[in-house]
Amino acid sequence: MDRQELILGQVLSFHGDPITEGVAAARIERQGSVLISGGRIIGHGPAAALRAAHPDARLTDMSGHLISAGFVDAHAHMPQTAIIASWGKRLIDWLNDYTFPEEMRFGDRAYAEEIANRYLDLLLAHGTTSVASFCTTHPASVEALFAAAEARGMRVAGGKTCMDRNAPEGLIDTAQRAHEESAALIARWHKRGRAIYAITPRFAPTSTPEQLEALGALWAAHPDCLMQTHLCEQLEELDWVRALYPQARDYLDVYERAGLTGPGALFGHAIHLTGRERQHLRESGSSLIHCPTSNTFIGSGLFDMAGLAADGQRIGLATDTGGGSSFSMLRTMAAAYEIAQLRGAALHPAELWWLATAGSARALGLGDRIGNIAPGMEADLVAIDLASTPAIAQRSARANELWEAIFPTIMMGDDRAIAAVWVDGHRRQIPPKGNETVSG
Ligand code: GUN
Ligand code: ZN
To answer: Of 233, 289, 297, 326, which is best to mutate to test ligand 1, by the most ligand atoms within 8 angstroms of its C-beta?
Structure first.
């Protein structure tokens, strides 16, 4: 058994979903502490009481910092790390001009490993301890992601992106190859350590109905895998789906017919939905993943957080890098706030933080393991500096209550706010801020 570690700080935990149950479902213990050992959270509570009860525990004093579960990014593209912030395109041109040429490079195993390692280091530097990521069509890209995650002890979901049409030759597989290669990766990686396999058809336009059916059959054979794809992101894409699938009642129906909806299905974007789609998403127990920086960056539209939450949908939050313009879940919360404002609703900081942690974990079916501070949960934690820049510090110093002190970090914070990260109970060295150089 590892020696126990007692982390002192302002401890944020959730006792319910603040979006549906009210913000009192989020609690902050000001003079709090979290006791961890053997990769698990043993308990949390007042610092004085836990210090007295566990005098032999190693003390890590983060007093004044916010101690939270590590961020959970529910939809991202590791292979797009190096093309984040590419200028001037909407979805389909952005895919053809920037994304597919970059994804072609992942046939080279060494390049895949370099980017997978760089990507996970960037995530940890931003306080993100878990991600559900797309890879490329190449199985080597999945190997690279899971190996990099295993080396860091991270709970990561990922999968081979399947495409058998409407993409360059070098990225195309077939229905059969998608099934076989995904099945082999499931056998090798699913539930190995903390790894979770996500069956990954990219989106309806790049798969034939046969490929989607093959992946539906694969998911039926491995129902504890996740299934991740894109849904109703941009209006031009909806027109394309209608032309490619004239029999389908709507976009979601393309996936529904192939057996690709239900608990564990993660639908990125979900902006332009019909009433029927909303009903089936909710009734099937599928998850909707809100990608706000991507939706403004690529010009996709405004996710209906208030309406979808009122429906009772399961909603996660995600960067969608590199369509999304930031690796930071703080910046992503800020963008979610701004999009909700444009739709006339203000998301409370407790609601935003829940989406970035426990909400995303629940969307991934991992709400009992990650995304919250509670006894028995896995010890993936972050310590957040609530005064990480002069601009943030001067505003939070004015705050009358704690959420008001946290909100400037949500709106203006970045990796400089991440003071410490624990993964699987181990403190991880996070790279120095700002001035490192990387090649490539
Ligand atoms: N739709 C299909 N592929 C992608 C992708 O890589 N990024 C985004 N944002 N949307 C997609
Ligand atoms: Zn995406």
So the answer is: 233
